[in-house]
Amino acid sequence: MVREQYVTTTQGSSSPRLVPDHIYKIGIYGWRKRCLYLFVLLLIIILVVNFALTIWILRVMWFNTEGMGLLQVHSDGVKLEEGESEFLFPVYAQEIHSREDSSLLVHSTENVSLNARNENGDVTGRISVGPEEAQGHTQKLLINSHNGNMLFTADGEQAVIGPDKLRITGPEGALFQHSVEVPQLRSELFKDLRLESPTRSLSLDAPKGVHIKALAGNIEVASNMDVILQSSVGLLVLDAETVRMPSLPLSKGGVSGNAQGLYEVCVCPSGKLFLSKAGVTSTCSENQEC
């Protein structure tokens, strides 16, 4: 509160005359002062609560000079010592490694997707593993062994299997819709090898020959219609201790006095074979079944 006094003089008189005092009040009083104190008190409370929440978050999240709890931040990346990590949004990383004493497990309730992008941000490769199927999209698929040898590669034109041996263990075998080119095809030990075409033809072709060998069993060729063995230039050789043709047709004519049941094999000009009862001389011309 400031008090001011003004001194005035009258004309013709030198004695000063005092003017009544005027009092001016400077400051905040009344309800404005109480509101200001209340606002300051509320601000202090908010600061204290924020400070307490900050301390609580630091203690709960285990913030320290090396990182956040078990998650350590180094110059070469982020390392999780123990426990599991959960990501709610996409993760962008150059490399992801597991700990030395455990495997790397990626788990999701829906699917797990891995995308590779170029410098423009376009997806060049994708692997997605879902609850029902796994999909992969890439220009070329390459699988190598631990020592760098190629195991399998596939692109838009062909698929190549690197190892010397391909083993199929399914009970129904392997189904090929088109031709298959292999240097050798064999079954497992003590198992049968069966080549079958239920509704179409089956063809075995090779520029230098086709070798079919059974070391400890039989070779059976069954067909609903014809079985054709054809050689364009060479011979057809049946080299065996015994050659049997049990279903050759028998001619109706016969030779009297043949009690031993001997027959001779006759060949028609068309190549058809038939049996005729043997006599002193050939009976094929007499009992033609061509």
Rg:
51 Å
Q: Mean pLDDT, rounded to whole units?
A: 78
Outline? rod-shaped
Percent helix, as a range, is 10-25%
Report strand %. Answer: 15-25%
- Largest β sheet strand count, sense and barrel closure: 3 strands, antiparallel
Mind explaining what this structure looks like?
By secondary structure, the protein is of the alpha+beta class. Helices cover 10% and strands 21% of the residues. It contains one helix and 15 strands. The chain has one helix at 31-60; strands at 2-4, 7-9, 16-18, 22-24, 67-68, 71-74, 77-80, 112-117, 123-129, 134-137, 141-144, 150-154, 159-161, 263-267, 273-277. The chain has a three-stranded antiparallel β-sheet, with no helix packed on it. It is rod-shaped. The relative contact order is 0.03. The model has no long low-confidence stretch (mean pLDDT 78).
Keywords:
15 strands; three-stranded antiparallel beta sheet; alpha+beta; 290 residues; rod-shaped
Question: How do the strands and helices of this protein lay out in sequence?
Answer:
Elements: E1 2-4, E2 7-9, E3 16-18, E4 22-24, H1 31-60, E5 67-68, E6 71-74, E7 77-80, E8 112-117, E9 123-129, E10 134-137, E11 141-144, E12 150-154, E13 159-161, E14 263-267, E15 273-277
Antiparallel strand pairs: 1-4, 2-3, 5-6, 6-7, 8-9, 9-10, 11-12, 12-13, 14-15
